[in-house]
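batch_manifest entry 22 of 60
target: UDP-N-acetylmuramoylalanine--D-glutamate ligase
source organism: Aquimarina atlantica
requested by: lab member K.T.
priority: normal
notes from requester: please return tokens only, no post-processing; we will run our own comparison against the previous entry in this batch. if the run fails, retry once and flag.
--- input ---
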Amino acid sequence: MKRLVVLGAGESGVGTAILGKKEGFDVFVSDKGTITDQYKEVLRNFEIEWEEQQHTEIKILNADIVMKSPGIPDKVALIAKLNKKGTPVVSEIEFAAKYTAAQIVGITGSNGKTTTTMLTHYVLQHGGLEVNMAGNIGDSFAKQVAENDAPFYVLELSSFQLDGIKDFAPHIAVLTNITPDHLDRYEYQFENYIASKFRIAMNQNENDYFIYDADDTVITEYLKQHPIRSKLLPFSLTKKVENGAYLEKESITIIIDNNKVIMPTTNLALKGNHNVKNAMAAATVSQLLKIRKATIRECLENFHGVEHRLENVLKINNVQYINDSKATNVNATFYALDAMKSATVWIVGGVDKGNDYTELYSLVNEKVKAIICLGVDNSKIINAFGNCVDNIIETQSMKEAVNMAYKIAERNENVLLSPACASFDLFKNYEERGRQFKEAVREL
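--- output ---
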């Protein structure tokens, strides 16, 4: 009996353990932290051995295969020992893909991947395909393969998940964009992070497809230096493409093998140029998978987006409050500010991941009337924008930040929470940060 060791008992870890058990592995789950009661219950039900608050090496180093949670860096001593022994250390995505015959759509990118994943799933589902959604969203891919496998999957994939693949190859890969993010995990080398994102295409062949943003010079330059085997389907807001999607006179045109779909962007439910790109990517996937044109159009007009991503919360005294808590890097915030049509009070800050704020200067000059800092250490934000905005205020809680914004914002203006940073200094995660924002707005 082969031994599967799972490091990390979160959603992906427990899902992998369930699938491993079903496929006849001897499974052991080990978590350096505490395991939640909910997951302990699942492990007990499946009679899977587990430990918490430690990694017992003798029980781990005898593994035939190890699945490590995406949160565990490769540099950890235990991982180094496993690598030295030649034990395969893989991600949940790699492990689970071996046990399904499904066609997989894999979506990655620094920003836009959640919206694109949910939008693609929405269109495919309405188009009549039996399709599951997993990866960074909802129930883990492994758990779904074990308990309710489907002929199609749309997977949202982070660079960490892609770092742990060996043979995984999605039939359709989408790369939304690449901007500096998580550089702390990549030796602060942007090229390491870029290479990590492109792993999504490394096992693809001539019968597979690669959909990407042709306006993103990081992507186009990398493709010139490192050609890939799959069929290229670019999308662009600025230039016509032969195969792929482009914007012309307020309409999206998608061409695949002389098949043409045209749809107006004026009716898109999601506003902003970045959402035109997300719509292009989702529509291109849908077109490849033979969804009817009318269904694609209808879905793009009805899909209202993702919680915590440019989510309109309330209008109070004609001031629009917008929750963009999911913006955990500068580029995501760039899109949010770019989508603002009137003067904006901007709530920003948190744990900085090596941010370079210079690309926001022109937008901040043009659109932001006041900045409200929400973080334990705000010095970098104050230094960055001190010359752009006269009014910069420091706050220590969401309630305080929203109350300050309420005092400053006037009729027909916006209050935008778009932190450009991780949330871990004051909140558990970006969801909690977004929920607190919404609660504070509702209490005004």
